[in-house]
Amino acid sequence: MESKELAIAIAKTLDSKKASGVRLLKVRDLTVLTDYFVIASGTSSTHVKSLAEEVEFQLAQKGVKPLRTEGYATKSWILLDYGEVIVHVFYPEARDFYDLEHLWADSEEVDLAPYLAPQDGPNA
Q1: Count of other CB atoms within 10 angstroms of residue 8
Q2: d(CA 34, CA 124)
Q3: Cα Rg for the chain, rounded, in angstroms?
Q4: Distance from CA of residue 105 to its chain's centroid?
Q5: Residue 29's Cα: distance from chain center in Å?
Q6: Residue 22 in contact with residue 107, Cβ under 8 Å?
Q7: Rounded Cα gap, residues 61 and 40, in angstroms
């Protein structure tokens, strides 16, 4: 699976489980660590854990397993490393504190609108 295709599949999985603030950053030209960051937030530590578990489950169904995982013990920031794609699932306060979007401000954000479900309601 190509790295962008993998990143979009992850974003779609997170969105389907009601993750908030799902963003996809292309960092390939800025670091040798990975091609993409997928960043999302859960509404509680339980939600953060379930989001990460769902990503792992859905990708395992396609034969894709993370190289490593971190953060399941604290559930405030869970990292799933898929090599070409690194997934960051945050508790909102942790996301605000680490502010990866600002840290990687020179990255190219991939527009996820064509891939994610439209948000309903006046506060979407």
Answers
A1: 20
A2: 31
A3: 13
A4: 16
A5: 19
A6: no
A7: 21
